[in-house]
Amino acid sequence: MTLTMEQSPAQAGAAQGAKITARDVNVHYGDTHAIQSVSVDILDKTVTAFIGPSGCGKSTFLRCMNRMNDTIDICRVTGEILLDGQDIYARSVDPALLRARVGMVFQKPNPFPKSVYDNVAYGPRIHGLAETRADLDGIVEDSLRRASLWEEVKDRLHQPGTGLSGGQQQRLCIARAIATAPEVLLMDEPCSALDPIATARIEELIDELRESLAIVIVTHSMQQAARVSQQTAFFHLGVMVEFGDTSHIFTNPDDKRTQDYITGRFG
Amino acid sequence: MTETAMNQTGATRAIDWADPALVQRVARRHRKDRMLRVAGLVALLTACLMLAILMASLLWSGHSAFTQTHVTLDFEVAAGKVNADKPGKGNYRGIVAEALKTRFPEVTSRRDQKALVGILSNGAQYILRDAVVANPDLIGTTVTLAVPVSDPYDQLAKGQIDVDTPEENRRLDDREIAWFHKLEAAGSVSRPLNLALLVNADSRFPELAGLSGALWGSFYALLVCFVISFPVGIAAGIYLEEFAPKNRWTDLIEVNINNLAAVPSVVFGLLALVAFIGWFGMPRSAPLVGGMTLSLMTLPTIIIATRIAVKAVPPSIRDAALGLGASKHQVVMGHVLPLAVPGILTGTIIGLARALGETAPLLLIGMNAFITQAPDGIMDSSTALPTQIFIWADSPERGFVARTSAAICVLLAFLVVMNGFAVYLRKRFERRW
């Protein structure tokens, strides 16, 4: 990427109100071309869903947005991804700080084998976000409340987070992610390991969190995408086939492949 | 199956589950299952039998060394024979001889009297001396003390000298046996637990020889080994697993570490002899050099154990920490290492247990010297448990045969304790999620 005074294509083409702007992103795993020239705008205070069949690259693309792919040696990312107009792959950007601003929730609930409190306090602690113990207590309580977990765990904050139920663990992971006050929350199939009731609670939670941050959710379930998202991107074989308003994609898709996928012809 | 059956779809294809060929195949399958089970059971029983034979033979030949025959005598510590100002100096040998002569007034010839003194261990005079030095008030009184008998009489008491063999082929003649029986009849002979085996250092006399020097030597050597190989092994393992780029150089290092774990230990002994003692001029027979040599052997074990334990930490935990913006060292120190600790500790203790039993490299650096004093530190000359066993197995005295087996039992006991400790640590630090 060259540093010029002129605007890059992405900066020029960024939509108004876009939190993250991706332009012409390509990802290679060794010799495999996993993502081919994907461009997308993630709007602030909006839920964007990535749908598509297994292996279509939607998770890979999600992990580009907080540079989690950096940890894979053979993975190479080209193109531009801007967060608030700033290139996140620029040399000056520290991936660790970026990941505090762009939080992530994973497929399988993965709380640390520590107490509920320590799980939520981990992010603020490593980034030094709390001055005093009381500050930290406040952040932990606030995060747990926003993840609608506070009432269930307030009496066992110092018991292991791994002792909670699957759905509670996933909400704990969400609380942990929002404790660093991220501007974007990436969710990689957050409900795939949960039962329908726990899934419904997470979906409610996503709707509440949308008021304060941008959310990108990868999901296998088209119903879930239709329920929680305002924008939907359909991926197929490493290509973003279609991107637009969720209502539009699900009712009147432009592309034949999208039509086939959402009607259950393949996938 | 016929061609048409193959072409039918699964739902409608008719399978004859009672077909004799199929039934036969199932029977054959069951027979193979049973055979595999039986073969495994036989192998397990064989292994158990071998272990039982080993333990039984060790205990059988070693049990007699856990007791030591003592004779209780009255020693007249005459003021004329011991100087009250310097109780350490005195004719204790004379006092001991006198005590025996008093017990056997019928023995009058000088030759017989000389043989009579041979009943008691050469260490009897020193035991008496130590008792008097500890309490100088004893001078001028008669001290009643149980002292060890010499090795031939110990063997006699334990029934290992056959009185039916011709006198000239026996280690004790009829006259000597009669003396001992007289002492026995008087109730002066006892066989207490052989504490000397643990508290004494090595000695030329089996009845005085103990493992204290070897135990301390092994302890210091293992301490040095641990201090060197534990931090270095963990750091190397973590670097290779977490930080090292995957290229030809790290592959080469990995192969070499794996090979190092398989190098015969005697080679490390030669290396230590040339490098540590030859070039660096470190002292011979010292636990410091022994420990450094052993750490060369333990290091690959710990590196490999660390790498396996680190690799076994679920990637989801790393992802969770990285996703929150933790840096590499925060992920490693805060999450990976604590979760890998049980595996690392187990590997370390297994490595140390192997080092404890290692003989060949210690022989090469001279830890098989004859040393009658326990070491005071890592620079003193000493032996180690396995080399002490080696020395005793090489000794001609009859009493060392049982002591060799007893020493092996002590070594095995320490190995069992160390392995038990490894299991405890693993259970203690293992976290579940």
Characterization of this structure:
The complex is a heterodimer of chains A (267) and B (433). Chain A is of the alpha/beta class. Chain A has helices at residues 9-13, 58-64, 95-101, 116-127, 133-146, 150-153, 166-178, 196-209, 222-228, 246-251, 256-262; strands spanning 18-29, 32-43, 47-51, 75-83, 86-87, 102-105, 184-188, 214-218, 231-236, 239-245. In chain A, a hairpin with a 2-residue loop joins strand 9 (231-236) and strand 10. In chain A, helix 4 packs parallel to helix 7 (166-178), helix 5 (133-146) packs across helix 7 and helix 7 (166-178) packs parallel to helix 8. Chain A is globular. The two termini of chain A are 36 Å apart. Chain B has 433 residues and is mainly alpha-helical. In chain B, 62% of the residues lie in helices and 4% in strands. Chain B has a 3-stranded antiparallel beta sheet. In chain B, helix 9 (212-243) runs antiparallel to helix 14 (328-356). At the A-B interface, helix 3, helix 4 and helix 7 of A face helix 13 and helix 14 of B.
Give the key terms:
heterodimer, A: 267 residues, alpha/beta, 6-stranded mixed sheet, 4-stranded antiparallel sheet, 36% helix, 25% strand, globular, B: 433 residues, mainly alpha, 3-stranded antiparallel sheet, 3 strands, 62% helix, 4% strand, extended
Task: Compile the SSE list and pairings.
The complex is a heterodimer of chains A (267) and B (433).
Chain A: H1 9-13, E1 18-29, E2 32-43, E3 47-51, H2 58-64, E4 75-83, E5 86-87, H3 95-101, E6 102-105, H4 116-127, H5 133-146, H6 150-153, H7 166-178, E7 184-188, H8 196-209, E8 214-218, H9 222-228, E9 231-236, E10 239-245, H10 246-251, H11 256-262
Parallel strand pairs in A: 3-8, 3-9, 6-7, 7-8
Antiparallel strand pairs in A: 1-2, 1-4, 4-5, 9-10
Helix pairs in contact in A: 4-5, 4-7, 5-7, 7-8
Chain B: H1 3-7, H2 20-62, E1 70-76, H3 92-103, H4 110-117, H5 124-134, E2 142-148, H6 151-157, H7 174-185, E3 189-190, H8 196-199, H9 212-243, H10 248-260, H11 265-279, H12 287-311, H13 315-323, H14 328-356, H15 360-364, H16 385-393, H17 399-429
Antiparallel strand pairs in B: 1-2, 1-3
Helix pairs in contact in B: 2-17, 3-4, 3-5, 9-12, 9-14, 9-16, 11-12, 12-14, 13-14, 14-17, 16-17
